[in-house]
Amino acid sequence: MEFSDVIRRRKMVRAFTAEPISPEVVERLLRAANRAPSAGFSQGYAMLVLESPEDRAAFWAAMDPRDEYAGTPLRNAPLIVIPCSNKEIYLDRYARPDKGWTDRDEKRWPVPFWHIDTGMLTMLLLLAAVDEGLGALYFGIPPSAIGGVRAEFGIPDDFTPIGAVAIGHPDVDRDAKQRTSRKTIARRSVEDITHRGRWEA
Questions:
Q1: Bridge partners, 12 (sequence order)
Q2: Less Cβ crowding at N or C end of the chain, within 10 Å?
Q3: Is 47 helix (H, G, I), strand (E, B) or coil?
């Protein structure tokens, strides 16, 4: 698929069939995500990959204790990836001699690059899913559920889940019936979001 087509077709898919994803495709998705850039080549990110029905059921039980997603076509997704960021890896990397921030002061960072870089990994994962003819949905894990997800899967304290990505074969008919902001809010134009040379109202 041409890259321009991948970008054009990318959207959040909220309904999946139960059709499995081949191991070869899963590996290509993960390898694509691992091409993400990172500040100082710190690579302070990781992915928790949940493929078995047991692991996915445990995720939904921890993430959704009130069972609000029960019976929804989102639960059919055969693959869930939880991207995680690690601030300490960045602070350690920039305290090395070639960077010279020996005090590891977090205030030196204008924004939390550990989350931003993990977000770029996530975007590559979303684009790779489209390139494989799959659908994907990035969604947040509620703060109240993060502890349960951590405990269930042994996520170390120094890694922060930034959300989750459900991946699978789109159920086109059911996806079209899902409630989404895309149906009520138009995409802003390039002209609306672009300021050339000077920020103008």
A1: 136
A2: C
A3: strand
